[in-house]
Structures are given as C-alpha cells and as structure tokens.
Specification:
58% of the residues lie in helices and 10% in strands. By secondary structure, it is mainly α. The strands form three sheets. A three-stranded antiparallel sheet has the order 3-5-6. A two-stranded antiparallel sheet has the order 1-2. It has a two-stranded antiparallel sheet with strand order 4-7. The radius of gyration is 28 Å and the shape is rod-shaped.
Length: 233
C-alpha cells in the first residue's frame, strides 16, 4: 500500500509530458462515456448515479493531472444536473439529489487534488534524484552508494572503471562483491568500512596499504572513506 502514492505520482509525472489537447480532450470525453454507460446500466432512470463518473475523474486525473481532473468533475456535475428532474435544467427538484451531486463534486475535487498533488511531489522527487545523480556522476573520485543493507544502488563512471563493474551489473549486489579490498602486504581481506558506517553512523576511512581487487583480477592501491547519507529528519 505504501507504494500506491508513488505509483500514482509516476503516472501523473508522465501525464505532464503529454500535449494539452490530449489531456483536456480526454477530460471532456470521459464524462460523456460515463453518461452513456450510466444510462445503459440504469435504463435511463433520471436520478444521479456516480460510480462511472467517479472512475472518469480518476482516469482523467491520472492521464492529465489535477486540472483536467477538475474539468471532468465540472462536466460530470453539469451532466447530472441536466439529467436530473427537471430535465435540461440546472435545478433539481429533490433535496436528496442535490446532496448527492454536491457530495460527488466534493469527492471528485478531492480525488483530482490528491492525485495531482501526489504527482507534483513525485515530480519534485524525480528532479531531486536527477540533480543528485548528476552531481555524483560529475565527481572526479570513485563514488559507490549502497542502501541500508549494504547493497549497491549507485556507481559513477570513475567507480565503474576502478572496480571493473558496470552500474547495471552491480546494482543490488552486496558491496563486498563489487568492492573487494585486501591489505597490500598480508593479502588478508581488509575491513570494509561500510559496515561500521551502517552500524555506527560515522565517517570511516581505510587502513593504510589497502588495494582494490578489480573484477578482471588486477589490483590498484586506493585510499577511501565511507560516510552515511542522512536525511533532514
């Protein structure tokens, strides 16, 4: 369930890349389709019936974002006002019908706003990730990032050259698989600083005379450090 907002956000982020005529065109067409389906299901009973219109609002918001979603809400409300007795009038004879239409309008606006806001937040997150990735790729030193379990999530081109692993191959692998280090003199495995960083949350450096065993079997002397990446919380 925690991935649902992220999925919705990505859909709306993609929606912002679509031409306006597609987003708003669909926003106008979906209520008409909902009206036809509703008329078929209810056999033209003149009473507000909103399930299909709710689906129309959700689809419009996902495909086009918040504003097209609100356009779909407005058109859906107009259609139901015209279809509810007195027909072809913007008035309703029944107080219950008026309440149903008002509740739908409020719920539709909430759906469109929620989906749109989620998309905006996801878009900001994607932009921040892109900026961070660009910064890390531009650093002249080798950079390897891992998750809290010590599995590789990022490598810049310098790290790829140093280790002999490409990012696509290394992603998801344990750091020890990619970053094999030994003492230059004893040839014993050197302590990987990432474990101390994950456990203690402090910056750690390597011991002197440490070499990196590259994927092809060659080795290079290195001097590195490991540091935690913390959020503002």
């Amino acid at each position: 369930m925690k991935d649902v907002p992220q999925l919705l956000g990505r859909l709306v982020v993609n929606a912002t890349l679509r031409p306006a005529y597609q987003r708003y065109g669909l926003a106008l067409v979906l209520p008409l389709l909902a009206m036809l389906i509703t008329a078929t299901l209810t056999r033209f009973e003149h009473t507000p019936f909103f399930p299909m219109f709710t689906v129309a609002v959700l689809l419009s918001s996902l495909f086009g974002g918040m504003t097209p979603g609100l356009v779909t809400v407005a058109e859906s409300v107009l259609i139901n006002l015209l279809a509810t007795p007195p027909v072809w009038s913007l008035r309703v004879a029944s107080q219950d019908d008026a309440i149903r239409i008002a509740l739908f309008a409020c719920a539709g606006c909430v759906v469109a706003a929620f989906v749109g806001a989620t998309g905006e937040l996801q878009q900001q997150l994607e932009q921040a990730r892109s900026r961070l990735s660009t910064t890390l790729r531009s650093i002249g030193d080798a950079v390897i990032a891992t998750d809290a379990q010590g599995k590789v999530t990022f490598m810049n081109s310098v790290a790829e050259q140093a280790t002999g692993w490409r990012l696509e191959e290394a992603t998801g692998c344990a750091l020890e698989t990619i970053f094999k280090i030994v003492n230059e003199s004893t040839r014993l495995p050197a302590e990987n600083p990432i474990r101390n960083v994950l456990e203690r949350g402090i910056v750690m450096g390597l011991a002197n005379h440490t070499v990196l065993l590259r994927r092809d079997g060659t080795e290079i002397p290195i001097d590195d450090s490991a540091a935690p990446i913390r959020d503002t919380g």
